[in-house]
Amino acid sequence: MKKLYLDARSVMSDEIHSVTLDMDNFKGRCRKIVAWLKSCCPEVLDLAVYGKNPRQEELQYVLDNLKFTNSSYIYLDTIEDVPLEIPNTIERIRIQNGSWITLDYVMQLKMIGLAFNGTSLTSQDINAFYKSWIEMESHQNLDCFEINLRNPENFVTVGLRDISYKMGSPKDEPFRDYTVIEGSFEVTRKDGQKASICVYDTPNGVVACMFAFQD
To answer: Which residues form the Sdz-33 F-box domain (predicted)?
Structure first.
């Protein structure tokens, strides 16, 4: 199989830029599959992982042993509710089923793009994240932060509590299946950096997206 891949790559004169894994089909072969991928493509830009309740240690093995430099998309629930160790060498992370994600976990990540769904983060937690960014205490290079809203009704009163903002026009939806709910909340970091916070209805529930405008 490796020879077939190398022959095909030679004919196409191109490298693999992204890898998508369905862990439901691993069936105990996680290490063999990862070893084969490493032998074929030591480094890729993007990694996407899908599955229903794989073992957390297998997912962690994938993250530890496959080198991906741009982004990782994780669309699965793990059997264990244990935080994953995500390499800070990548630029973006999207975790679709993040019941194990805490505010402390989010605060220690260094990526410029963060997107989480299915978390238990409260509006108070989101408020703390926004304030940390505004006060330049964390995530100074952030360009996008997306988070699910467990209680959309109190997002403005709690999620934006004690944060100065101006209402702006609705921003374009980041994905086709996102529907903007209202106008944007325009906030300013203490160094003058601007950001827009927008609320969208999505197939997975309501989310808030903060888009920072890098100079």
So the answer is: 87-147
Count of structural domains, the chain: 2
Is the distance from CB of 207 to CB of 148 less than 8 angstroms?
Answer: yes
Global pTM? 0.84
Query: How many angstroms separate the Cα of 137 from the Cα of each of 33, 43, 45, 63?
Result: 41, 32, 29, 28
What pLDDT score does 97 carry? 84
Cα(105)–Cα(75) distance, rounded to whole angstroms? 18
Residue 96 forms part of a structural domain: no
Q: Count, in order, helices (H) and strands (E) of the chain.
A: 5, 11
Find the domain containing 69 and state its range: 1-90
- The candidate with the shortest Cα–Cα distance to 178, out of 115, 90, 133, 129, is 115
**Three-state secondary structure call for residue 91:** coil
Q: Which is higher by pLDDT, 159 or 175? A: 159
Q: Is residue 105 part of a domain?
A: no
